[in-house]
């Protein structure tokens, strides 16, 4: 058996907490932090409710020269990367002998909308001579990968995955491949900041965007009240390493990346049958060497429109068979919002923490599930958890599934 | 007269690029490179653009290629004084 890729560090910047511990405390308690949109310039827009990251001061964590040249989504990424490195106890001294063995891969879908809007306003109000040079890089999807690489001196394989929301899981597959090809470690994950006026206007035509103004009603997937999703900002970064290298340096193995697969089922409309997602699940199980019964918990994509929820339920039942009716399904993102590419990254963080604590976190604001799934609602459910399945779908037809195993699980 | 770029103004411009510099120290070590201060090429390009807007005139095209504050001050002030 070839060596495994393992998660040794988790860094979270989420609407319900900064740092993995705060995030987990809020996630397992099932509180919802969805609230009225308060970001500057957004108050009059038809999107009323979102998951904002509040009380996050990037200036306390990141040097000014990185802050002035980056958007809020990269501020989230830089801070989350720091938290992940700290959690993994991985410092510059560990890799400066071979910086080419440590790379970065992120996923992004919204880009640097706030920064870009400010500079375009300068363009229209004052003219082209008043557009700052960092506009050339700050809005760009690859900005977070590049800035993390520069700031931490990481010269290994670097990339950005733009495969819509599911890219947040596909990034793990890229990191895993880099490890298999000889890298010692990778920083991987996704962060977003789509709550700026320009970015929100772009989202207004998205299928499923919920414009309800009551936070407790705006995002209730898998119920007959389902009316779409609310967006969120923030995200998670992870340190993943070759297992042998991680153990050699005495790192704690928090989880194993066991399997991933992605499919693409068309740009015109969502995959109404869930066939693409079911294929992704089967592929991820195959790579993980897992039977459907081995899956102890499913972190659902939970888009929150009746058609998309039905398609996801069908995919879970097709791919897992009878076990699909029995396995606990959860969508903690109903309490934080859907952070686009960062949503599956946050779900992966929640999945690892759930495995560690033996607790399935609940799905806030969701009651009376109208699908044949065992959705965990109300309060957290203790369970013996060894293997978790994380699902994600993109607006334009990408589907991904990731299987993660508990860190202490036997190699078998 | 007031057209001249001083170390104080340059330090303030560098601050907008996120770089905090003590003007006295910069004056005493004019050959310390922008690189050592942490100012990258886009940062210097932004400073040139801001200066051009403030002075209402173009600076020499190689202004953003200067390596040190000393070199930059000489080039800019020569240009501003001679109108070249």
Automatic annotation (TrEMBL), chain A:
The source's domain of life comes to Bacteria
Q: Which residues form the Ketosynthase family 3 (KS3) domain?
A: 2-406
Which Pfam families does the record match to this protein?
ketoacyl-synt, Ketoacyl-synt_C
What keywords tag this UniProt record? Acyltransferase, Transferase
Looking up InterPro entries in the UniProt record yields: Beta-ketoacyl_synthase, Ketoacyl_synth_C, Ketoacyl_synth_N, PKS_Beta-ketoAc_synthase_dom, Thiolase-like
What SMART domains does the entry give?
PKS_KS
Similarity remark: Belongs to the thiolase-like superfamily. Beta-ketoacyl-ACP synthases family.
Enumerate the PANTHER family for this protein.
POLYKETIDE BETA-KETOACYL SYNTHASE 2-RELATED, POLYKETIDE SYNTHASE-RELATED
> What is the protein name for this chain?
Ketosynthase chain-length factor
UniProtKB/TrEMBL annotation, chain B:
Identify the domain of life: Bacteria
Signal sequence span is none
- Outline the extent of the Carrier domain: 3-84
Q: Which InterPro entries match?
A: ACP-like_sf, PP-bd_ACP, Ppantetheine_attach_site
- State if Signal is listed as a keyword: no
Enumerate the UniProt keywords alphabetically: Phosphopantetheine, Phosphoprotein
Transmembrane domains' residue ranges: none
Tell me the protein's name: Curamycin polyketide synthase
Species of origin: Streptomyces amritsarensis
